[in-house]
Amino acid sequence: MCLITFSYKQHPRYQLIFAANRDEKYDRPTREAQFWDENPEILAGKDLQAGGTWMGITKSGTWGAITNFRNPSIRRDDPPSRGHLVLDYLKNGEQPVTYLQNLHPKADQYMGFNLLVGSPNQLGYYSNQQNEIQLLDSGLYGLSNHLLDTSWPKVERAKDRLSELIQNNSIAEETLFALLADDHEAPEDQLPSTGIPLEIERKVSPVFIKGEDYGTRCSTVLLVDVEGQVTYVERRFRPGTMEVIDENRYQFEVNQCQASR
Length: 261
Fold this sequence. Notes:
six-stranded antiparallel β-sheet; seven-stranded antiparallel β-sheet; alpha+beta
């Protein structure tokens, strides 16, 4: 993902409200969100080039999502795919803090990343640009291609809109997809400086990006209510537009026996 905003354990109905856009080159092959034949507990999209995923959830309620950390000066020789960090977490069934503790010693092998890993009773965040495991308290958060809650314009716009929806009791699939459809470019004086040319910085400043070769490939809404009912909806787009080419929608109840492990 390249833009995530989420509310964790601060809503009377939903313990998790999660809205995210995945931005990627249009020619990178991708499979839509589905339960994986090889791992039927996992619901996620698939990066068909490297085999990992950018976000997903299991039937036991563990979930993960990743964003890249934008810094052109970071160099690695033949780094492993960051998408496998999410996939490995979903496959191994560990608690978030345990997974992140095991990841920490080898995190520098990867290009820059931000990783969110959650379970029904714990939520962890880790960036290999900060090297600090954080267990998150209830609250509203935003994440893009820098550290958690870095105040980039797109992050602040998404968080502010999510906060409004919560305050107005307007949380619904369509209102969250509308949040993710914000294609407003930030003013030049508000753009972050991440080492890329100013014109490119401007083009990637919206919540929803519509570039020539790179942009928002899909939007995902994930809702987990206090009774463990999961709603996962993914919309994929025609490159460079907001035209929906397909929608993949799943609902299930968290497996309470597995979730209590």
